[in-house]
Amino acid sequence: MTRASRSLSIFALIGAGALALAGCATSTSGAGSSGVSADPSASASELEVEAGWLDGGRQIALVTWGSSGCVPTATDATVQADGALAITLSDGEADTACTADYAPRVTLVGVPEGVDPTKDLDLVVTDAHGVRGDTDIDGVAGLAAGGATDYAPSAGWVDDDLIAVLTWGSSSCAPQVEDVTAADPKNVTVTFADQGDKPCTMDMAPRATLVSVGGLDVDDSGTTITLSGADAQFATPVTVPVIG
Asked: How far apart are CA 6 and CA 58, in angstroms?
């Protein structure tokens, strides 16, 4: 897909999503947003969604809009007879307090058997209240659904100005974006904030973060993203391609 150079002001959007790995019923979820809002006047009768590939084609970053404190969880992803992927969302953890904002949130969805990420894919999404929306993802050569993850960071385009970043680590300490720059139009540099003495669970979970490149002169073809900061995890910067 082709995207023009970005001309909006710089902002960073953060969202930790939930994962439904292919062949696995376990999911994790989290939340976060810098407070940048999508259009709250969008019709409540249709769910606004965007999506992109992550983890080499094993996962999809699904973006919806609503309270940044209540990130949806993917409870089901099923290939339909027409080849479309039907995704069902829940409201996430029942005891989570929902903030009174309207922001993009990212949910991680495991790609089920029968999906070929090298081919275009239609998505039909239904939320916990029965509201539906649809979008599509362009196929990308070299991707392959299924197989075990290598737990490496990855990134993918989910909208013209928005990149989803997947990292692995403590589910209670998802990376928080501190700064986004692009000295080179082919590379975006993201600095994650040091979270100090925040207590972190000792698990290894997928965490999804949304990064906006609005206002940066970024070439969307062959883009890479360099991740740095976030305590010791990215003390040595890691550069990965942006899928899409």
From this structure: 28
Rg of the chain (C-alpha set): 17
Q: What are phi and psi of 194, to 5 degrees?
A: -75, 120
> What tokens does 13 get?
């959007």
pLDDT (tens digit per residue) in 15-32:
333 333 333 333 333 333
Burial of 192 (0-12, 13-18, 19+ CB in 10 A): buried
Cα–Cα distance measured from residue 156 to residue 164, given in angstroms and rounded to the nearest whole number? 5
Give me the residue label for tokens 């999404």: 125
Alpha helix stretches (DSSP H) within the chain: none
Q: How far apart are the C-alpha atoms of 205 and 30, rounded to whole Å? A: 11
Give residue 58's pLDDT: 97
Mean of pLDDT values over 106-135: 97
CB atoms within 10 A of CB 144: 12
User: Average model confidence (pLDDT) for the chain?
Assistant: 84
